[in-house]
Write a structure and sequence with these properties.
three-stranded antiparallel beta sheet, alpha/beta, about 25% strand
Length: about 170
């Protein structure tokens, strides 16, 4: 709660004041910023890095990216055309309009990592309920579990991958 209040004043209020035409979504420390061009995205990313440094934070270099939202109207080739935010992967996908015509749109769907983690949790729960011993592969996200003598499973809570993405349309 306190971290969310801090980010509201340190980020939300600041970006609304400094870049009033730029839309964004934030959940805890995960942020997606929508820009009109790659040049604007670079400018906003650099300004965000400066602002976070002012308040003692920094962008995660491996998780901060400029993403090109490729679809039927935006057909340029760019290095990065997808990102994951809160367990959903946003990328170009085939869609169908109300007349049945197919087109490419930039849309979300559950990320492969989230599907794999859910499958692992589901298998562990089924095994624990059946009373059979469970084998869990080490190093898999969400795969560690502890089976008690009662057959119940204790699993860690799902961790959200922090993705600080600046994207342009």
């Amino acid at each position: 709660m306190i971290a969310n209040l801090f980010m509201h004043y340190a980020f939300d209020a600041w970006i609304a004041r400094e870049f009033p035409g730029v839309r964004f979504e934030r959940y805890c420390d995960d942020v997606v910023v929508h820009c009109a061009s790659e040049q604007q995205a670079r400018q906003v990313r650099d300004a965000i890095a400066g602002r976070l440094a002012e308040v003692g934070l920094e962008l995660h270099p491996g998780k901060t990216r400029i993403v090109y939202c490729k679809d039927d109207d935006r057909r340029d080739d760019h290095e990065v055309t997808s990102f994951v935010f809160l367990g959903y992967q946003f990328r170009p996908r085939l869609a169908k309009n109300k007349y049945g015509k197919h087109f490419v749109s930039f849309l979300p769907a559950v990320s492969p990592e989230a599907i794999k983690a859910e499958r692992t949790r589901s298998r562990a729960s089924e095994t624990a309920l059946s009373g059979r011993p469970t084998m869990v592969k080490a190093g898999m996200p969400g795969a560690t579990c502890t089976c008690t003598s009662t057959g119940r499973t204790s699993m860690p809570s799902k961790a959200t991958v922090a993705t600080r993405s600046t994207m342009f349309a």
